[in-house]
Structures are given as C-alpha cells and as structure tokens.
Amino acid sequence: MSVATPATREQVSGAWRLGDPAGARQFASLGTLTLESGVELPEVTLAYETWGTFHGNNAVLVLHALTGDAHAAGETGPGQQTPGWWDPLIGPRKPIDTDRYFVVSANILGGCQGSTGPSTPAPDGRPWGSRFPRLTVRDQVSAEAALARALGISAWHTVVGGSAGGMRALEWAIGHPSKVHRLLLVATTGWASAEQIALTETQAAAIRADAHFHGGDYYDEDRGPVAGLDVARRIAQISYRSERELEQRFGRDRSTEPGEPWAVEAYLRHHGAKLTRRFDANSYLVLGDAMNSHDVGRGRGGISVALSRISARTIVAGIDSDRLYPLFQQQLLAEQIARSRRLEIINSPHGHDGFLIEHEQVGALIDRLLS
Question: Pick from 167, 188, 169: which is nearest to 177 by CA?
Fold first, then answer.
C-alpha cells in the first residue's frame, strides 16, 4: 500500500493537472478491496486532497455528495474550473480552520475524478465499463478507511458530510464508532426511501436509453451517452431545488436564448450540459446504485439498533425546503443518535442544494460542533 505525491494524471473522463500543493490532488494505492458482495476489486486507487498539518489527533474528513470530488477547498486552477465546493467553510480562520485541523477530502470509490471507477483501467488495461462491480455505501467507506490507514490516521476528530456524503459519514460513525469523535450530518438520511430510489432509477433509465450507451462500454466509441446523462442531471436538478425557488426565479418567464421558450428550461439545459463536460455516465449509474443500497439498519437489527452504535458527539441538520431529503428523515436521526441534542433547521429557499449554498448557517453548526 502506498500513498502517491501530487502528480499529473490522465483520466478517461478528461485530462487535468494539479494546482497548488495545499489541496493538490494526490493518489493513494490501496491494493485489493473485498466488497460486501464478496467480489475482490483489485488495484484500488483513491484520489484525495489535504489541507493543514497532521498532528495525530486533528484530522477532519469531509465527504462530498453524488457528483462532487476531492476539491472541497481552494481556488480555481489548472484542471479546476471552479473553487472548492465548500471553499467558504475550509481554510485558515474559516469554520474548519486549516491552521488547527488536518482536512482530508477523498473522491468517492466508483467516481471519475481520479478514484477507481468504471472509466479507469481494469487489470487488462481496458476501462472497466460494464464490468465494474456494483458497490454499496459500506464499500465506499471501506475504501476511505483504507485511505485513513495509509495516511496514518487512527481516528477522525470530526467527520462531516451532506447528502450522499452524509450517508458515508453515518456509515463511518456506525461501522467505526471508536474512530469518529464528532459528526456533522446535513440533508441526509439513514435509508434511501422509495421515492429517492425511484428518482435515481429514472435518471439511470435515461442514461441506459441513450443510443450511445453501448451497454456501458462506450469508451472506445466516437460518442458516449451524453444526451442521457444530460437528461438525468435535469431530473436531478429539479429535485435538488425547491418549487418555491423555481417559481420565484423563473415563473413563466421566457428565455432570451433563441429556441428556448422557458427560462426554467434554459436553466435545466445549462446544468445538464455542464455535468456532461466533467462527469462519466457510468460513474453516475454506479454511485446512484450505491446510494439506493443505503440502509444503516441492514444486517444490524434495524435502523434504531444501528444508530445506537454511534458514540460521536453529533449535530444533525436538515433544510426546511428540501423535498429530496425531507426533514422527517433527519428528525429520526436526531432523535435516535444518543449524543445529538435536537434537529437543527437550515432556513433556505434553495431546497436540497442549500447545504452547498447556506455557508453562514452551516458554518455556525461547524463552529458549535468543533467548539
């Protein structure tokens, strides 16, 4: 097992180079990972970034959502078209103060930003494609646990996650309770509901219906399932935002762009096209399927029994306008995690995406947890 230093890496989903060493992308070679299914996934690599200095007991793990990556903080640069997805919250004198804490953010197993996934080479040198095995959230946490060992981190001072990142944060606290001392869960759930699964599977169907999907083996083709991924993201984007916000922002306004009659349609087209430029359709399928597997009570005697394993000091927060991960799911977590006092409510018109937007409110929760 080895941890690589920052270096240039070519990806099937696109080429990129690393920027500043503080937060620059690095790669950990983790060897073979045995999945919950019993399948052995060989030559596993996780891409990750770090900020701050490790002192043995100050490590903070920040876990990204479905289409995020390891670039949680820092400015734009070579290969990074946007600042880190939580840049206002991570850095010197910010809520997660990198003068005090050693912050780690890893690209999820099955992703397409440097970690092992469908677009990366299998042992035979060809992209995994349709051969890539199914994953669960617990498999993804197993890979992150291997990364922690490679970095010499025996326990996390704090684990933070929102949405799909919150699913992994929960699995960390349940599966490795002695290794998580503080826990922040935002806009997440202890189980994937029928509606959440239905939305994910509808997006997957859009990708598979694309004539250029080729059963998942499209990497050597002239064109991949770009249109299907575009539609999948449009469906997701509707669920990420609130009806109130869409009505206030767009209403029945016409777009000023030729051939696009509705402003809200132009908005969805923008987000669909934007994702296709940076994300792999197969990863979208694999990660969505893993999220559908999420049920902390599976094989543990139920959700309540599973949550009783958590020993970390915990803050659970939900967003009042979130229709994808409604407040009752966070309420259950807050009530059944022993060291969680109450459900914290983030007031936002932005729906589920509020955890990426309401930096002041999320930052206040982080301040309280870390203090």
Answer: 169
What domains can you pick out in the chain, each with its CATH number? Answer: 2-193+293-370 (3.40.50.1820), 195-290 (1.10.1740.110)
Question: Please, which residues have CB within 8 angstroms of residue 237's CB and are 6 or more apart in sequence?
Answer: 267, 268, 271, 272
Summarised one tens digit per residue, pLDDT across range 21-54 is 467 899 999 999 999 999 999 999 999 999 999 9
Q: Is the pTM of this model over 0.70?
A: yes
Is 298 buried (19+), middle (13-18) or exposed (0-12) by CB count in 10 A? middle
- What span, in angstroms and rounded, lies between the C-alpha atoms of 173 and 341? 17
Cα separation, 82 vs 101, in Å, equals 24
Give the distance from CA 174 to its chain's centroid.
18
Look up residue 152 and give its amino acid: G
Active-site option among 163, 242, 340, 348: 163
State the CB neighbour count (10 A cutoff) for residue 301: 10
Single-letter amino acid, residue 355: F
Provide the residue type at 332 as one letter.
Answer: L
Q: At what angle do helices 281-292 and 194-208 cross, to 10 degrees?
A: 160
163 is catalytic: yes
